[in-house]
UniProtKB/TrEMBL annotation, chain A:
UniProt keyword annotations, A-Z: Chaperone, Mitochondrion
Subunit structure: Part of the mitochondrial complex I assembly/MCIA complex that comprises at least the core subunits TMEM126B, NDUFAF1, ECSIT and ACAD9 and complement subunits such as COA1 and TMEM186. Interacts with ECSIT. Interacts with ACAD9. At early stages of complex I assembly, it is found in intermediate subcomplexes that contain different subunits including NDUFB6, NDUFA6, NDUFA9, NDUFS3, NDUFS7, ND1, ND2 and ND3. Interacts with TMEM70 and TMEM242.
Record keyword RNA-binding present: no
Originating species: Cyprinodon variegatus
GO cellular component, one term: mitochondrion
Matching PANTHER family: COMPLEX I INTERMEDIATE-ASSOCIATED PROTEIN 30 (PTHR13194), COMPLEX I INTERMEDIATE-ASSOCIATED PROTEIN 30, MITOCHONDRIAL (PTHR13194:SF18)
Function: As part of the MCIA complex, involved in the assembly of the mitochondrial complex I.
GO biological process, one term: mitochondrial electron transport, NADH to ubiquinone
Protein name: Complex I intermediate-associated protein 30, mitochondrial
Automatic annotation (TrEMBL), chain B:
Assigned GO CC terms: mitochondrion; nucleus
GO biological process: one example: innate immune response
InterPro entries in UniProt: ECIST_C (IPR029342), ECSIT (IPR010418), ECSIT_N (IPR046448), TPR-like_helical_dom_sf (IPR011990)
Keyword Repeat: no
Cell compartments where the protein resides: Cytoplasm; Mitochondrion; Nucleus
Protein name (database record): Evolutionarily conserved signaling intermediate in Toll pathway, mitochondrial
Annotated signal peptide: 1-16
UniProt KW Transmembrane helix keyword: no
Family listed: Belongs to the ECSIT family.
ECSIT C-terminal domain ranges (all copies): 265-322
Keywords, comma-separated and alphabetical: Cytoplasm, Immunity, Innate immunity, Mitochondrion, Nucleus, Signal, Transit peptide
Amino acid sequence: MSLQKISRIPASSLLSTVHDIRWLLRSVTPLAVPNRALVQSEYRRPGQPREDKPPWQKIKFDLSKGLEGVKKHFKLLRQEFADRLVGPEGKPIIEHMLEQNRVIWEFRGPESLQNWTVSSDREIGGQSEIYLKLGRNNDTCFLYGTLCSAPPRDGETRYSGYCTMRSKQPLVSFDRKTHHDWSSFNTLHMRIRGDGRPWMVNIAAETYFSHQKDDIYSYFLYTRGGPYWQDVKIPFSKFFLTHRGRIQDDQHPLWLDKINTIGFTLGDKADGPFQLEIDFIGVCKDYAHTEDFAYEVYKRNPEV
Amino acid sequence: MKVSRCLLLLVRPVRTAVQFGAPLPGPHGPQQAARHFRCSPASAKSRPVPARFVNQDEKKRTTSLATQEDLFEQVAKEAKTKATFNEVIEVFTKRDVRRRGHVEFIYTALKKMAEFGVERDLSVYNKLLDVFPKEVFVPRNFIQRMFNHYPRQQECGVQILEQMENYGIMPNVETKVLLVRIFGEKSHPMRKFQRIMYWFPKFKHINPFPVPQPLPGDPVDLARLSLKRIANDLDAKVTVYQLPCTDVTESGEEVELPHIVGIQSAAQMELLAKHNPNRPVFVEGPLPLWLRKTCVYYYVLRADPAPPEEKVWKLSAVFPLG
């Protein structure tokens, strides 16, 4: 892998090899007008000019990717090989087969917050705020902020007012993407304490085509509010397919073998402060739940 | 479609006579020949117009730019009610049988609905859909069907339905009949209508903690409702300690005292009975509770859990707490 080769070269001689890289990339012409129809790159805030930097200008030679990073990644790689000798996902096979409940995210220390990203409509010019911190006793995660549904005045955006928390994609050694495998489970189990607002749980699975990049499976999460904890169990058969927030006509059940991220979104058009406390998020196998999918899969709308 | 046409015949006999070019005598006597509805209206000025809109004709003769918002602004000076909003729509529809500028008018009307307080009224949306001229935008051959016939009007129809969807209003059969008459059966607004009719009933009752619509107006009732909601116990009892009243203080000022409502379940009473008086209790708050768009604040009386040495273990059946 090319990344390994660069990390073995000492930092001082990295800069001297820049002209070699340029020679290699000379054959690749930078795109004058990016082909937006097929590949949708990172989000462009409405009203901002499109940036067309050639790919060789985007490489950053960071000295912080030093020896510590190399040590950490090799340790993870060694752990991976050891896990394979024990069984699937580092557990003995009998445990993997008989597993009924698994806690995926548990907020028991400040390092557990590193797995989560928060964002709000501030990125598109709105005025909502969202913050994430550890709850009382360092035992839970506390998501709080203010929601403001005034749309940004850029002439393009019509609706606004959302706040979201999303988990990061799980990574193995050398920052390679991996997925959650929940194929032996069928229910999402969370212990939360909300303030009565309706949230939305979004699960993003691994997709193949670039058009499917914003495909998310969602379901509603209604909180009761109050000081008591609320156990929420949502079967995966209830999740419906949406693309960029719009529910789709052709529905199919969520495939659990390659899950990338899970997220919580608030967008209930009620301006004001909000808070959500999460104790843990896990998956469980409910033998009593036999439903495959909650929505019709056959072609409903007649052909045009 | 025959049903809707019959309805129209009953309601507006003049219009349909003009539409079909039928040899029925017009309102001005049998001398006037029957006109097709696509011709300019000859008798526009003879139709009665409410007095406040009379200067519109004079405005047209000047060269200043008149926007669709002017109609609404004129009416807004008096009162912003459903009746005045309907009046504005009627003035626009009666002004011109071809409904020139109806797309801009509908977009403006959609924006002004919130000001007039009619954004949750289905009859107003149906009246707004009625502004579209009927049967003009229905595709009549395969080329028109292929090429997104009248895209701006279709987008406008979709925006009306989208505003209805945003406010959670379920359309009814009148909306469907109007959409079919205006855009045809396989158009974008009709598709959006089908999607709303498919998904809304599925998600109407999935809230395990439904909030009553409308919320009680009395603050004490609202407090009672929200406390019962968060108590997590159906046997919990609500006590009203203080009703809202005005009190006269020593200096003679009038102070408004708020209401104090509390709830306590049997398990909480037991915990309080077992609590050691040497240990402190805390009043925590104000904590927010949202009921749709209103936020109420509540306080909690709590204590720290007893340390292990003070716990008294009783020999009794242990029930698993849910």
